[in-house]
Amino acid sequence: MKFKFTRNNNGPSVKSRIESVLRQMLNNSGNLAMNPSTELTRKIIGGTKAREGDWPWQVSLQWSGVHHCGGVLISKKWILTAAHCFTSHSDTRQWTVTFGISTTFPKERRGVRTILIHNNYRPETHENDIALLQLDKEVTFTRNIHTVCLPEATQNIPPGSTAYVTGWGSQKYTGSTVSDLQQARVNIISNNVCNAPSSYNGAILPGMLCAGLSQGGADACQGDSGGPLVQEDERQLWFLVGIVSWGYQCGLPDKPGVYTLVTAYHDWIKQNTEI
To answer: Where is the Peptidase S1 domain (predicted)?
Structure first.
C-alpha cells in the first residue's frame, strides 16, 4: 500500500491523514492486515526506517561500544565523517566501525587505525568540519556494504533539489539515539536563504551546505553527526554531497540542518586517501 503526498506536507499531518484513510478502510472492510515493517516510524526527524541495503555506505562510529556518530564508506579502508565527533574522543583503540542498518546486530565490525582531522577545523565556527578514519582491516564489498560516489569539485547541487539524510540519531532534540537506521528526504537550501536574519544570520560559510524543509519537520539530529547527505543523479548513481555537521536544535522552521559541503574538500580527500 502506498500513499503519495506533495513535498510540502510535514510529518505529523501526513501521519494523521494516513491514519484517517486506514481507519476508513477498516470501517468499510471490517478487516485490515498490516505488515509491522510499514509502521509509521518517526526517528531521525520526520524520517522512516531504512531497509537493509538501501544505504550501504552508511556506518556507525562507536565509542567504547556505544553509537556516537555516523560515517560514510568511501573506499575499502577509508571512512569520511565530521571532525567534531573527535573533540574529546581521540583514542583510536576505543573506536569501532560497524556496517549494516542495525547498531545492535551489525553485518561487520572494524577497528580504527588512523584518525585524520582537517588541520583548519574551527569548532567555534564549525569551519572545515571533516575527518577521515582509516580502518584497521579492509572491508569486502557486498550488496549491503559498499561505497558511495564522491562528487567532483565542480559538481552542481541546485537549491530545491531532493537529497536524503540517514542515521541513528534521536527523533527529537535531546532525545536518545535509535538502533535501526532511519532516513529522511530533505531539500537543498541556498546559502543566501540559509544566511537570512530569520535563519542562520550569516553563519553559513562557503564550505557549508543547508538542507531541510522551510516549514521544518525533516532533519538530522543528535547522533547523526558525520553521516551522509546524498543525491541521486540521472544515471541512478548516488553521490555524497554533505556530511552532517551542525544546526539549531532539530527540525525547526527556518533552521535547517547544516552540512559540510563535500565538493569543497575534493582535493583534501584525494590527497589524504589517494582515492
So the answer is: 44-274
